[in-house]
Write a structure and sequence with these properties.
CATH architecture of the largest domain: 3-Layer(aba) Sandwich
Largest sheet: 7 strands, parallel
Number of helices: 17
Helix content: 40-55%
Bound molecules: uridine-diphosphate-N-acetylglucosamine
Shape: globular
């Protein structure tokens, strides 16, 4: 029996791997899941496994936190014997974290075919650790599953053959589409700004973080701010927490997948430096202000309502005012961000492993959204989720207190 091994390690991997494991279940193959343990806190890992319906990992390498070289090196050391023994027909890696890079390098050395889910994204900023991970992983991959046309173009410009590039759409949106309905009816806050912050460029320098915290405090004077804090940010924020204490600024522990989806779907807008949240907010039609100078997801700026504000706090507050006055740009959902990306991946994997006859492939393809349907669709305007709107519910803003978690 053919074998596929999935390697995950950090929070943003889990919602990408879950739909692919589920879609590959329809093929007559053996699947194993390796967790490197890059993220290990229950709120950063276990809760995601549970909510996304991921199986218990077959291996947990317990790599933990360290410098980039040590973390990547340890993941490689621990992964090598696992893959050498399993000898899978294909390894699938996700996104751009250090665990993705580690698995790619091990596969290259063991000459195991590699598939990269979320290939081709480029910020063209090599000072970003994730950009290095993306470039190297793509270079070593045999199957490159891209979310959008710009990713295909980036790969072609780097000399990747067309036959290796498979535009399947955005697999993270598959998880969102599946789990969003359960969040609609839950009791929620309304009319708040949702903030996340964890990039080293924003949180590691106390001066930069201090300015950001100051801007968030100022923002909280016009709209309540809800801020689930990443562990990396928590320690650094405590040093500048004097600036980040305000009546309407609520610091929370990291949120689970479903809770964060709920927070996002009901927010007035999001302020973030995350890559995935730029995409999720694009799908949800929630305006996104991104605290970065560049993005590897330019499509969210082109077709969506994402605006790059960098570290310009004047610009941030200006864009907040535009959103609150109703003059922010409306976005649309990019083609193939439709909840079926993992099925398209399964089709390619089946073909690669010689499991799908041409006829089966044609039949399966006809059941999926075809090229004719690959159009952008306009999304609803920012505001409460439809279920809330239908009921006319616009509950009172829950008063949020400042508390350092
Ligand atoms: C990593 C990814 C980043 C991704 C982010 C999502 C890399 C290079 N970076 O960044 O692309 O956007 O995950 O969260 O892979 N920590 C805990 N508990 C945990 C995990 C981490 O407390 O479960 C703390 C540790 O102090 C650690 C720090 O967070 O040193 C950073 O963790 P690490 O995995 O190195 O990078 P992230 O900043 O999480």
């Amino acid at each position: 029996m053919k074998k596929v091994v999935h390697v995950v390690g950090a929070r943003p991997n889990f919602m990408k791997a879950a739909p692919v494991l589920r879609a590959l279940d329809r093929l007559p193959i053996g699947q194993s899941l390796v967790h490197t343990g890059q993220h290990y806190d229950a709120q950063m890992s276990e809760v995601f496994f549970r909510q996304l319906g991921l199986p218990e990992p077959d291996y947990n390498l317990a790599v933990g936190s360290d410098s980039h070289a040590r973390q990547t090196g340890l993941a490689m050391q621990k992964l090598e014997p696992v893959l050498a023994e399993a000898r899978p027909d294909l390894v699938l890696v996700y996104g751009d974290v250090n665990s993705t890079l580690a698995a790619s390098l091990v596969c290259a050395k063991l000459v195991i075919p590699l598939g990269h889910v979320e290939a081709g994204l480029r910020s063209f900023d090599r000072s970003m650790p994730e950009e290095v991970n993306r470039v190297v992983t793509d270079r070593l991959s045999d199957l490159l599953f891209t979310p959008s046309a710009d990713a295909d173009e980036n790969l072609r410009a780097e000399g990747v053959k067309d036959s290796c590039i498979h535009r399947v759409g955005n697999v993270m949106i598959d998880s969102l589409v599946r789990l969003l309905p359960g969040t609609e009816e839950r009791s929620i806050w309304h009319d708040y700004a949702l903030v996340t912050l964890h990039r080293p460029s924003n949180v590691d320098d106390p001066e930069v973080l201090g300015r950001l915290a100051g801007a968030l405090t100022e923002m909280s004077r016009v709209i309540p701010v809800v801020f689930p804090v990443h562990p990396r940010t928590r320690a650094r924020l405590e040093a500048v927490s004097g600036v980040c204490r305000a009546e309407n600024l609520c610091l929370l522990p990291p949120a689970g997948y479903v809770e964060f989806l709920e927070l996002q779907a009901h927010a007035r807008f999001v302020v973030t430096d995350s890559g995935g949240i730029q995409e999720e907010s694009t799908y949800l039609g929630i305006p996104c202000l991104t605290l970065r100078e560049n993005t590897e997801r330019p499509i969210t700026v082109e077709v969506g309502s994402n605006v790059l504000v960098g570290q310009d706090m004047g610009r941030l507050l200006h864009e907040v005012a535009r959103i609150l006055s109703g003059s922010a740009r409306r976005g649309s959902v990019p083609p193939l961000w439709d909840g079926h990306a993992a099925e398209r991946i399964a089709l390619v994997v089946g073909q690669r492993l010689g499991l799908a006859s041409e006829l089966e492939l044609r039949t399966a393809k006809s059941g999926l959204p075809g090229k004719a349907n690959y159009r952008s669709r306009t999304v609803r305007p920012p505001g409460p989720w439809p279920a809330q709107r239908a009921r006319g519910a616009r509950g009172p803003v829950k008063r949020v207190r400042s508390e350092v978690s």
